[in-house]
Amino acid sequence: MSRRGFTVPPGRAGRLWLTRRLLVARRGADLLDRKLRILQAELGRFRDSEARAAAEWARCCADAERWLLRASMFGGERAVRLAADGQPAMVTIPYTVTMGVRHPASPVCVIPGSLTWDGLTLTRARQAHAAALEAAARHAATAEALRVIEAEVLATRYRLRAIEDRWIPRLEQALAEVTFALEEQELADAARLRLAIRAARLAPAARPHPRPPAHRAGW
Questions:
Q1: Which one of 70, 130, 156, 161 counts the least CB within 10 Å of its CB?
Q2: Across the chain, what does the average pLDDT equal?
């Protein structure tokens, strides 16, 4: 392997090898550039979604705390503890794919209802906490999706720069060197061929003509 990071086959096979690799590298750079543009557009949408989810979560948390305080003031902490019947809520976060990137999608929350009548204040507190749980799940999903998309944008940008700034210039330089060497070799071969043709043309003129045989006089 050479200092460029690859070994070029000798002769015209090397030029063909480099030409193909260069086409593949440029095609890869075009695809990565297209992917980067799409991901950057999606990144803005994910940032907006994460900001809205964060604001909604903050609002729902404040609302849940306010209704919990009211329920504690009206019914006492014992009533709040009894209203918590121990039924767990279920949160399912599905996944989707954007430009080959797997990230969380909109979560699904299943919150059990109350088995008894808790009163208006406790019912509103329960509903406010259910809304806060759903908002927290949405915010967690959108925040993780944003993190994944940002990481993929950064990785795609690094890959694109590596191809455009290092790989393609190395291939282009190697192709130019191989092409120059082949052209020099072709010129040298053509010069040797012309010399051989010229030498072949001059050879008959420089060769001495044979003398005719001498006739002996008869006795």
A1: 161
A2: 82
